[in-house]
From TrEMBL:
Keywords: Hydrolase, Kinase, Transferase. PROSITE patterns: PAC, PAS. It comes from Aeromicrobium chenweiae. This is Histidine kinase. The keyword Disulfide bond does not apply. CDD domains: HATPase_RsbW-like, PAS. SMART domains: GAF, PAS, PP2C_SIG. InterPro entries: Bact_Sigma-Reg, GAF, GAF-like_dom_sf, HATPase_C_sf, HATPase_dom, PAS, PAS-assoc_C, PAS-like_dom_sf.
């Protein structure tokens, strides 16, 4: 086995630091132990060796007992790395050496080289599972060791370990005894022993000194002891001793003794009675110590507690009051009974399960101080701020009456809450520009804080005979003119329908002496503080209004005029019911404030609404209705911002140039004020005038507007897009239209392409619903952004051209539709593209599409005004959809190739086709076939031909079924085309009575099968000038 010579224990497991500490403790304890030397001597004698020793080994070796060659080394510390025993201890097992000179581990050690050690037998000493030393025997010559030798030495080693442990215990006991003695001495504690059978009492010197006896002889019995106790305490001490003896229990007493010199000293004694063989107490052992300083300190503390203004009481561990100062007596004396000595929970039962109990018990259980505020109900009826400190002998409690502070705080909080409510009412009323919404808010917010239910009445000064004055009128009944109950509210949802019904009936049912009438005429609050139900019922006409009101059953009411700046805007009526107290002075003051704020706010709402209507009307008046060229549906929208009277510079325009081209314009003048609106009107007028009179394309129009703005010194800048829809005859045949546009710094136009033909022959411009992903919406971003109008008049303008298929939708818009705070223009345009695709895919017609675009894209309170123009290109091989409205084109505009060619006419002088057919069922079919052939030959569209055939068939069948033959037994059928109108006539031999029936049918479209005719034709008439003739007109559509 190899070892680290510097640390013989390096190979052992465990904490070597702890082992070293143990070795040092053992070394200190064994320093004067002769028993270890005797163990070493016994080992040397029994094993017949000249030398032996007991050593303790850490980083050094200390021989603590030895004989022979080791005797002189007892108590000497030597390095462990040169000691033979360190090898034994480090190995942890016994070691037998015949000749150390032949042992590689030992031959170089100092004791071997000196010749003192050739043979060696050692066993490790283990204490607390740690090898702490060695018991060994050795001699100067070689020797064989037997197993019996080893067993004998191990037994002696056990004795050595026992001696070491006893030495440590002895040291520890002596330390504890010394500490205890020091503690007793420091505390001044003396002991006594009373033999109950003999009455003998033995005192130690400290108690004798405590009782001031000095060297005097003590009487050595209980009677002598009682003579030393203060007379006022003697009986109490005797009772305590008797109780301890009788119960064989503990003794505790605190009493005064009178010293021989008359000085009084306080003593605290504790003891226990000891039972004899028969269970009765035979002895009482105890201790006593001087507590005079404590008592004097407590007396001083008591005096301080009495003098301080804060209330204080002390509770013992059983929750009994042991002390109260005078302030505590004053604050708690309201309970009307003594306090000291009673349990707190008995004297103050309302404290049980309250904050008081929770905090007091929590402080005692946790040992932590507590601080809290709590209320105790009558008879005290007070708020207290309490601080509690736990101690071994109970709980100390300091407290002050904070009732007035709490009430002041509650008043302040109530005032703050009222101020907050008043402020919130102002916020609510000014947060909307809708007058009726504002008063609905007012009716609701006053309920709860000030009323059980409420009603708000507005005065409409546009009603005749209503004046803004204070009640001047032509008659008493004039007060109700213009009054309108607008909103009501009740705290109980079950009563709200009653309130609504009452307000529907109230004003017409009130008499001229009503409280509402008084408030209107006198312009001052009217207060009914009690029995309001009876008082108001008396001024209500008998009927439903009175019955509904009596079910609401208020006890008090207050009617308050809502005054604006120069007029009364309305009235606020508040009610309280039987479950509430009446209105206090503070309530009335608050409600007067509410009415004042509400009046001004509602006046502002009206003023703002008037200003907004004026501004919006001005803005809209600057923009005209769009034209409606054939097969183009133009829709425009303008949405003002939420700012009142904040007219903007956004505009739209749509007009035709004299060559028939349709122009659409969108623009935005910089600014949001009246100047911007005026500049917008100028720029818009310039642009449309230049475009119409010059016939120029979009880029040239913008160029000329720039020049005109400079020449006319119009100080403004604007963005704009001018787009022109044009078509050649070849493009019409191909079903396409050219879009030519130029952009002056404006958001890009959008083109939406439906994946299939968007319309059906029969109906409108509503398209079939498809997947939004099948709708392509393209933003026409310019390759190079052109400057705004009004910046550089000489700038060149870019013009782009795009070929559009019929069925497309073109959308121009202003930035207010796509720009938001925190959102880029690109993101806004992308969002608009997605919404437009969804709306087109949903199959909306164009007007619905524009409305939904605004609803989906704009916030509830737009910060900017918005204008947009949408154009849908309907297919030209079908009639103009009904939803697109009638065509509207100026007379001086030349129709482009997109219009229908000039109508065909007959080659002969008479354009009429006339047929005289037999009066039988076959004639109708003959007439229909002839008409169809002629119309198809003239190039009429399929839809028109089908409608015309149906009309002719119905008229002929009607004449054959309900009429009678003409004079020559024929049915006369004719038609002609003039001014794009097809007129079809069918004549039979009917009489005037049948004419009257037909006229009634025409008025109600009932009977004689003419409902289909009425639906398909543009007009139809009947007359009996030459038989009974029915004539229907169908206007030829522009294909």
């Amino acid at each position: 086995m190899t070892t680290d010579s510097a640390n013989p224990f390096a190979g052992l497991r465990g904490d070597t630091g702890a082992r070293d500490d143990l070795v040092r403790q053992l070394t200190a304890a064994a320093g004067d132990q002769t028993a270890l030397a005797q163990v070493a001597a016994l080992a040397a004698r029994l094993l017949d060796t000249p030398s032996a020793h007991v050593s303790l080994i850490s980083d050094v070796q200390t021989i603590v007992g030895g004989v022979g060659a080791s005797l002189d080394d007892v108590g000497v510390e030597t390095p462990a790395d040169g000691a033979v025993c360190a090898v034994t201890a480090g190995g942890g097992v016994p070691m037998m050496v015949f000749d150390a000179l032949d042992d590689d581990r030992l031959r170089d050690l100092a004791a071997v080289r000196a010749g003192n050690l050739r043979s060696y037998l050692g066993v490790p000493l283990v204490v607390r599972d740690q090898p702490v030393g060695v018991l060994c025997v050795y001699g100067p010559g070689p020797r064989e060791w037997s197993d019996q030798d080893l067993q004998l030495l191990e037994q002696l080693g056990t004795s050595a370990v026992t001696e070491l442990q006893l030495a440590v215990l002895s040291d520890e006991h002596e330390d504890e005894r010394l500490v205890w003695q020091l503690a007793v001495d420091a505390a001044g504690v003396g002991a006594f022993d009373w033999s109950i059978g003999t009455g003998e009492v033995r005192w130690d010197d400290r108690i004798r000194e405590l009782f001031g006896l000095g060297d005097e002889v003590f009487g050595a019995d209980v009677e002598s002891f009682h003579q030393l106790v203060h007379p006022d305490d003697s009986a109490r001490v005797a009772d305590a001793l008797t109780t301890a003896v009788e119960t064989c229990g503990t003794y505790a007493a605190e009493y005064r003794v009178v010293l021989p010199d008359g000085v009084v000293r306080w003593v605290t004694a504790r003891g226990r009675a000891l039972a004899g063989p028969h269970g009765a107490a035979v002895r009482l052992l105890g201790a006593a110590y001087d507590t005079t300083a404590v008592q004097e300190g407590e007396a001083r503390v008591a005096r301080l507690l009495e003098a301080m203004p804060m209330a204080f009481f002390q509770l013992d561990p059983q929750w009994r009051f042991t002390f109260l100062n005078s302030e505590a007596h004053r604050l708690l004396g309201g309970i009307g009974s003594p306090i000291v000595g009673d349990v707190i929970w008995d004297l103050f039962p309302d404290a049980v399960d309250s904050d008081f109990e929770a905090h007091y018990r929590g402080a005692v259980e946790t040992g932590e101080p507590v601080e809290f505020e709590a209320y105790y109900p009558p008879p005290l009826d007070r708020w207290y701020e309490v601080r509690g400190w736990p101690a071994p002998d109970g709980l100390a409690v300091y407290f002050v009456d904070v009732t007035e502070r709490r009430r002041a705080q509650e008043r302040a909080e109530s005032a703050a809450e009222r101020a907050r409510l008043l402020s919130s009412i102002t916020d609510v009323l000014t947060g909307t520009l809708d007058e009726e919404l504002a008063v609905a808010h007012l009716a609701e917010v006053v309920v709860g804080p000030w009323a059980d239910w409420s009603a708000v009445t507005l005065i409409d000064y546009s009603t005749p005979h209503v004046s803004a004055g204070t009640g001047s009128a032509e008659g008493r009944d004039v007060w109700r003119r213009g009054l309108r109950d607008v909103a009501g509210w009740h705290a109980d949802p079950a009563y709200r329908p009653l309130v609504d019904r009452y307000l529907e009936l109230r004003i017409p049912s009130l008499s001229d002496d009503s409280f509402l009438a008084q408030a209107v005429r006198d312009n001052r609050p009217v207060f009914v503080d009690q029995d309001a139900a009876r008082a108001i019922s008396a001024v209500l006409e008998p009927g439903e209004a009175r019955e509904v009101f009596q079910r609401l059953d208020p006890t008090s009411t207050l009617v308050l005029p809502l005054r604006g700046r120069e007029r009364t805007i309305g009235l606020l009526t508040v009610f309280r019911g039987a479950g509430s107290i009446g209105f206090t002075g503070a309530d009335i003051a608050d409600l007067v404030d509410v009415a004042s704020r509400a009046g001004v706010a509602l006046d502002n709402v009206r003023l703002y609404a008037e200003q907004r209507d004026l501004a919006e009307g001005l803005q809209r008046s600057l923009m005209t209705a769009p034209p409606e060229p054939d097969h183009l549906h133009v829709s425009v929208r303008y949405e003002p911002s939420a700012e009142v009277a904040q007219v903007g510079g956004d505009w739209y325009d749509a007009f035709l140039q004299t060559d028939g081209a349709t122009n659409i314009v969108i623009g935005d003048v910089v600014g949001h004020d009246t100047a911007a609106a005026a500049a917008m009107g100028q720029v818009r007028g310039l642009l449309r005038g230049i475009a119409v009179t010059t016939g120029a394309g979009p880029a040239e129009v913008l160029q000329r507007v720039d020049e005109a703005v400079q020449t006319l010194q119009i100080e403004t800048m604007a963005t704009a897009v001018v787009a022109r829809l044009e078509q050649t005859p070849e493009e019409r045949d191909a079903g396409v239209t050219r879009l030519r546009w130029s952009n002056a710094g404006h958001p890009p136009p959008l083109i939406a392409v439906h994946p299939e033909a968007p319309e059906t022959p029969e109906t409108t411009d509503r398209v079939t619903s498809v997947d939004p992903r099948d709708v392509t919406v393209t933003a026409l971003w310019p390759d190079r952004a052109d400057l705004l109008l009004g910046l550089v008049p000489e700038t060149s303008r870019t013009e782009s051209v795009l070929e559009l298929s019929r069925g497309c939708t073109v959308l121009l818009y202003t930035d207010g539709l796509v720009e938001r705070r925190g959102q880029s223009l690109d993101d806004g345009v992308a969002q608009l593209q997605a919404v437009l695709a969804e709306l087109i895919a949903a199959g909306l017609d164009q007007d619905e599409l524009c409305d939904q675009l605004l609803a989906r894209m704009l916030p509830e309170q737009p910060e900017d005004d918005v204008a947009l123009v949408a154009v849908r290109l309907h297919p030209q091989d079908r009639p103009r959809p009904a939803a697109a409205g009638p065509e509207s084109v100026p007379d001086n505009v030349v129709e482009q190739a997109c219009s229908v060619p000039a109508p065909h006419t007959h080659a002969d002088d008479d354009p009429r086709t006339s047929l005289r057919l037999p009066f039988d069922a076959t004639s109708a079919g003959v007439a229909r076939r002839r008409l169809v052939d002629e119309l198809e030959g003239l190039g009429f569209g399929e839809s028109f031909v089908i409608d015309a055939e149906l009309v002719l068939g119905e008229l002929a069948a009607n004449g054959l079924e309900h009429g009678r033959p003409s004079g020559d037994d024929t049915l006369d059928v004719s038609w002609c085309i003039a001014d794009d109108v097809l007129r079809i006539s069918v004549c039979d031999g009917g009489k005037s009575a049948e004419l009257q029936a037909l006229e009634l049918t025409r008025a109600g479209v009932r009977g004689r099968g003419l409902a289909i005719v009425d639906q398909l034709c543009d007009a139809w008439t009947v007359d009996d000038q030459q038989g009974l003739r029915v004539t229907a007109e169908l206007r030829r559509p522009l294909d």
